[in-house]
Amino acid sequence: MYGTGGNKVYVLPETRLVVVVATTNFRIQGAGALTDKLLTDYILDSVDLR
Questions:
Q1: What's the CA gap between 29 and 50, in Å, rounded?
Q2: φ, ψ at 49 (rounded to 5°)
Q3: Is 7 within 8 Å of 21 (Cβ atoms)?
């Protein structure tokens, strides 16, 4: 799944993690990059990957 408003599903098998981000940022330029930043800067930082 990938949408123009930054909607994405990340499947991270090495961590046994599936992250679904559903947003309504369709009017914001670069929404996809903002969604990626949300994953890397907030979601993954809060997950214990040990």
A1: 35
A2: -90, 15
A3: yes
What kind and span of H or E run contains 31?
helix 31-38
Give the whole-angstrom CA distance, residue 36 versus residue 42: 10
Q: pLDDT tens digit string along 1-50?
A: 555 666 788 898 888 889 888 877 667 787 778 888 888 898 888 887 66
Give the Cα separation of 30 and 47 in Å (integer): 25
**DSSP conformational letter for 28:** S
Cα–Cα distance, 9 to 6 (Å, whole number): 10
Extract the tokens encoding 37. 């930043």
Going from the C-alpha of 41 to that of each of 4, 33, 45, the distances in angstroms are 21, 12, 6
